[in-house]
Design goal:
Elements: H1 15-40, H2 43-46, E1 47-48, E2 55-68, E3 71-84, E4 88-92, H3 99-107, E5 115-125, E6 131-133, H4 139-145, E7 150-153, H5 157-160, H6 167-178, H7 184-197, H8 203-207, H9 216-228, E8 234-238, H10 246-262, E9 266-271, H11 274-280, E10 283-288, E11 291-297, H12 298-303, H13 308-315, E12 364-366, E13 372-373, E14 383-386
Helix pairs in contact: 6-7, 7-9, 9-10
The chain binds adenosine-5'-diphosphate, iron/sulfur cluster and magnesium ion (MG).
Magnesium ion binds at residues 99-100, 238.
């Protein structure tokens, strides 16, 4: 078979098809960028209301797609969940399920123009009875919010800190940007206060150090100081402890929990590690292949997991004191993100299928006031809330 022919049923695409996709993508992303710029001119187009004023952020059927040369990657497709005030929401799921893309959509830090939020709303509570729809908020407005009212702690502190600037300067920078009214002395005093707050004993010394002079745990503490300097309403922690060893992990998580209560903010904690979530989260959102498949309180998810994927995750978690021959692993793999099936995404791996499973993608089913699951096993037992809405790329 010639190299440039599309292999039937395979993942190869011909050069011609790839060119067509690129052309389509260029046209579409140009239009999407223009729509975004136009929406930015009129605040009415990006001002909205929260569904529940007790939430800081509401994700409502959010669709974030990447328009690549091999096709549209539906990284996040119809994701709906809330982050209530002063609480910790754990977002869990295996690598590649769309956790980071969800948070980057909220921060407007997607790699544009390839990555675009093409559907749904992300509402951020501005506290004055209104909300911003982040999807349509212009970049200039977003810069007032990012790092100030919503801040982010990344996985790898060494790559997030600038290696050529001293620590003090890097913490000062956020304060200078968002609080132009503060004097130089006030800023330095606040930076030292933050370094002390995150448990750095030698704050004056660390103020003058470069990132490479600090250990991984210390660097992550500095990242937390930067994220918290402006007392944000929401802190996004994306795998904050994955790069750290276990004892330091526990210290950093304790610190985050303690500081969150001190400044009355919420945390969106992204992790593939169920252990981290169990110790920290009030609510848990489980994602699979770009969709939320189960959500509820930590108690619902850990004591009554309902989706076969969540049940599988629980079984594959090692438990101290429990002797097992071999840890459970979920058979099969995640479907191709460029070509998702039109039935349940977990079906090909699912050992609990029932009569409805070959039909369309399962709806969200409410099985208690706090617990929602997308699985046909509960079709007759709970209230149907609705189906996740994909964006129709052809119609954008
Ligand atoms: N810049 C990009 N271009 C194309 N695809 C991307 C890009 N960033 C992420 N993706 C895809 O989006 C999906 C979700 O990624 P991500 O949110 O980073 O996963 P994780 O849950 O591990 O944080 C993956 O399938 C990934 O391949
Ligand atoms: S809907 Fe069916 S196939 Fe999908 S997870 Fe539930 S039982 Fe399995
Ligand atoms: Mg990630």
């Amino acid at each position: 078979m010639a190299n440039n022919e599309k292999k039937k049923g395979g993942s190869y695409i011909s050069a011609k098809a790839s060119r067509q996709i690129s052309k389509f993508n260029r046209k579409l992303t140009k239009k999407l960028e223009k729509d975004r710029n136009d929406a930015g001119k009129d605040p009415a187009l990006y001002t909205t209301k929260m569904k529940n004023p007790d939430n800081v952020v509401e994700f409502d059927n959010v669709c974030t797609y990447f328009f690549t040369d091999i096709g549209t990657v539906k990284a996040v497709d119809g994701v709906t969940f809330d982050v209530p005030k002063c609480s910790t929401v754990g977002v869990v799921g295996e690598s590649g399920c769309g956790k980071s893309v969800t948070s980057l959509s909220l921060m407007q830090l997607l790699q544009r123009p390839t990555g675009q939020t093409v559907g749904g709303e992300i509402r951020f509570n501005t506290g004055d009875g209104n909300a911003l729809n982040i999807v349509k908020t212009p970049t200039a407005k977003m810069q007032e919010i990012r790092g100030n009212r919503i801040s982010m702690i990344f996985q790898e502190p060494m790559t997030s800190l600038n290696p050529v600037f001293r620590i003090g300067r890097q913490v000062n920078e956020v304060l200078e940007l968002h609080h132009p009214e503060m004097t130089e002395e006030q800023i330095k005093a606040r930076t030292l206060e933050m370094l002390e707050l995150v448990g750095i004993a030698n704050k004056e010394g660390v103020y003058n150090m470069y990132p490479h002079e600090l250990s991984g745990g210390m660097r992550q503490r500095v990242m937390i100081a930067i994220a918290l300097a402006c007392t944000p309403e929401l802190i996004i922690a994306d795998e904050p402890t994955t790069a750290l060893d276990v004892t330091i992990q526990a210290q950093i998580l304790d610190l985050l929990r303690e500081l969150k209560d001190k400044i009355n903010s919420s945390i969106m904690l992204i992790t593939h590690d169920l252990g981290v979530v169990a110790n920290m989260a009030d609510y848990v959102v489980v994602m699979y292949a770009g969709r939320v498949i189960e959500k509820g309180t930590a108690d619902d998810i850990f004591h009554n997991p309902c989706h076969p994927y969540t049940i599988g995750l629980m079984k594959s978690k090692p438990v101290v004191g429990k002797k097992v021959e071999e840890l459970y692993n979920i058979p099969g793999s995640v479907p191709n993100p460029v070509d998702m099936p039109n039935y349940c995404y977990f079906k090909d791996r699912c050992e609990m299928q029932c009569e409805h499973c070959s039909g369309q993608y399962p709806p969200e089913i409410k099985i208690s006031d706090t617990h929602v699951v997308s699985c046909y096993r509960f079709f007759e037992q709970g209230e149907i809330l609705g189906y996740p809405k994909s964006a129709n790329v052809e119609e954008l």
